[in-house]
Amino acid sequence: MARFRIPLLIALGLFIAGLALTAAFTDRHYVLLSVVLLLAALLPLFIRLERRPLQSRELVLLAVLSAIAAVSRIPFAALPGVKPVSAVVILSAYVFGAEAGFVIGAVAALVSNIYFGQGPWTPWQMFAWGMTGLTAGWLRRSWLLRRRAGLLVFGFIWGFLFGWIMNIWVLLSLPDALSWRLVAVTFAASFYFDLAHALSNVFFLAVLAGGWTKVLQRFRKKYGLLQQ
Amino acid sequence: MSSGFRSMHPVVALLYYAGLLLFTLLVFHPLFLATEIAGLLALLLLQGQGRQLLRSLPFMLLMAASVALLNPLFSHRGAHILFYWLDQPITLEAVLYGLMMMTMLLTIFIWFISYNYTVTTDKFMYLFAAAAPRTALLTLMAIRFVPLFQRRLRQITLIQRLRGIDAGTGSLKKRMTDGMTLLKVLLTWSLEEALQTGDSMTARGYGSTKRSTYTIYKADLQDKLVMLLLTVSGVVTLLFWVQGYGKLEIYPRMRPADFGWQEAVMYGSFCLFVLIPAGLEGKEKWLWRSSKHSNYPSDTLKKTGTRSMSYRSS
């Protein structure tokens, strides 16, 4: 049975993808297709995590940073839009790179939703925070993230991008009404939450940036973690 | 203690929920969606989750109702115009489509509540630990760290308060820097300790060979039987769906749904698929109730047929 597990999983994935395509083309029903595409986007990076050489120290480090990101969300549960997760993910990716940033973001979304409630938004949040980490890791050597102001701008932009990614699944449940006016209404409705998220990102990044990057960089150097 | 459907083998539960989600997203028919909601609600109520359901009801209704409202306002397709609102035609088709989407969202929300209760994270991880061992270990460690870090943060807060570092008092600037200090202590403490855990894992040989998995669940006869039933009824339903049955055509114009024998067979097997867990749970309840009413002549309990989680070790 174990030998057939991977081919079986692949066959199952292809089968569901086929059903999703059928539903999308014949019935204009896009929810399943969106979920399949989302998982397809997440899959390569998780396969990379499984395949790359990784010490157990590094694995534990990723778990600690994901858990800290998840814990940081709990004290602010009452304020919608204020999510320190983004700031923690950006800073971790800034020090440890794109792949680590993606994993920390995606796992933090999954784990924190155990406390906040899983729902159809969980894969979207995994995607959004994963991408936050991935882009922060890619751009960490660029002129934007080198200086403190650039880092804050980056956090501000991702506050809005996060909200816009989350808007997609709301829009997808209305395939027929999809028009620029509906898009405008949805984005206007989420504007204040996105703004709160963006501003809180700037705030947390400003407060945390100096101290945290120093601590994380020291650990990276001391233990030789994720040097690539 | 878990009993009834919760005590089934994780594969059975996962098969049920995966199939159910697939049908929710594929079968666009009010009767099927209503049956699904009824099946899930029956299961949740039998499991005593009514309060949990009630708590999330306002949010669910708000989300779903907004979808039902937005669709007719922005979609003007359809042949039957009900009335004009701000010079825009509101069509019967758009209203119905919005209601269908509302039902679908409600089903998904209820599905998640039931899924979270039955397929707990450890069961999910148990199933996927073999396919993705690192991701599973990483996620499980992170889940375990969350309550640990909360405890640690409380300890740190208590100790640092003696030094006058307190995020609860003082000016805003002081509170911010103090909160920072507390978090930084948590970060260094946890990292330092976690890296030692990592070293100890290496010392014990983590990653030296392929990771084996410990199987804690054992599939018994009932598990296998239910799995077979679910597979057969699910495949039958899916086959009919591929043939094009069980689809309500709303756009471009509303067509009255005809309910032939094909639909009847499809609906029958769908009902079987949806209602199996609720049936199992109900059977359990009924056996428990009836066992309380019968009096035992001796102290030894008769075997009643209620089941609990079967472990390999016990």
UniProtKB/TrEMBL annotation, chain A:
Keywords: Membrane, Transmembrane, Transmembrane helix. It holds the Pfam family ECF-ribofla_trS. InterPro entries: ECF_substrate-spec-like (IPR009825), ECF_substrate-spec_UCP037395 (IPR017196). The chain crosses the membrane at residues 30-47, 59-79, 91-116, 149-171, 191-212. This is Energy-coupling factor transport system substrate-specific component.
TrEMBL record, chain B:
It comes from the Bacteria. It comes from Paenibacillus silagei. Its main location: membrane. This is Energy-coupling factor transport system permease protein. The chain crosses the membrane at residues 12-33, 53-74, 94-113, 125-146, 225-244, 264-282. It is a multi-pass membrane protein. It is found in: Membrane. Residues 293-314 are annotated as: Disordered. CDD domains: EcfT. Keywords: Membrane, Transmembrane, Transmembrane helix.
